[in-house]
Amino acid sequence: MARRRQIYEGKAKILYEGPEPGTLIQYFKDDATAFNAQKKGTINGKGVLNNRISEHVFTLLAGIGIPTHFIRRLNMREQLIRQVEIVPIEVVVRNVVAGSLAKKLGIEEGTPLPRTIVEYYYKDDALGDPMVTDEHILAFGWASQEELHDMADMAIRVNDFLSGLFAGIGIRLVDFKLEFGRIWENEYGRIILADEISPDGCRLWDIATGEKLDKDRFRRDLGGEVEAYQEVARRLGLFPEGDGSDVLDLETHRKKRGK
């Protein structure tokens, strides 16, 4: 069988040429990075869990009318997705003060925000993904006014939906990042949700205890990263018979057999 052509490799995923024009295969890695890749490590099984969680969330979002690049999950680590032209902007939605916002403004982490905040960051690792305004985005042509409106509108809709989804399973959606891409239909470009939604890009805190169930466990050397990701997947109902450890054990067994 011919080896698939690699299109791109990022910090957490690899994109391969898809089986049909306009499609790609997205592979979820176990690699973990933080602070713009200044800290690197591995969370064994993270890719399997993020694949399942992101599949679930994207499927639910499609059900409420959010257009996404997700087509279907192929196996434990791969998804079939639509090929998009990525908009070089990360959209960050904040509901609670945490992370860089707490440090920059000197506000205690965990402080609820009086209103949801939407921030934009220019995707450039060499520059440290600097925060930008809508004026920068429009001036440099990274997105049009209509595209920016669509991204902000979808970000708020996603936040409203996911806040309710996670609250229903005892998790507070503190903040999260989204990426968007363009798909072209003749001369018309349309914005759709891309990348992934998982504990890698969301801050998720247990409502009752405040326990962190996301990548902050890796960033802050708290340990228990896999268990936190498993807990999110379990609460979402993705592993009704357990915590997902049996799925990770199965993958480990397959790797040892060379499959």
TrEMBL record:
Its EC number is 6.3.2.6. GO terms for biological process: 'de novo' IMP biosynthetic process; cobalamin biosynthetic process. Pathway: Purine metabolism; IMP biosynthesis via de novo pathway; 5-amino-1-(5-phospho-D-ribosyl)imidazole-4-carboxamide from 5-amino-1-(5-phospho-D-ribosyl)imidazole-4-carboxylate: step 1/2. Keywords: ATP-binding, Ligase, Nucleotide-binding, Purine biosynthesis. It catalyses: 5-amino-1-(5-phospho-D-ribosyl)imidazole-4-carboxylate + L-aspartate + ATP = (2S)-2-[5-amino-1-(5-phospho-beta-D-ribosyl)imidazole-4-carboxamido]succinate + ADP + phosphate + 2 H(+). GO terms for cellular component: cytosol. The keyword Lipid biosynthesis does not apply. CDD domains: SAICAR_synt_PurC. Residues 6-235 form the SAICAR synthetase/ADE2 N-terminal domain. GO terms for molecular function: ATP binding; phosphoribosylaminoimidazolesuccinocarboxamide synthase activity. Belongs to the SAICAR synthetase family. PANTHER family: MULTIFUNCTIONAL PROTEIN ADE2, SI:DKEY-6E2.2. This is Phosphoribosylaminoimidazole-succinocarboxamide synthase. It comes from Sphingomonas pokkalii. The gene is purC.
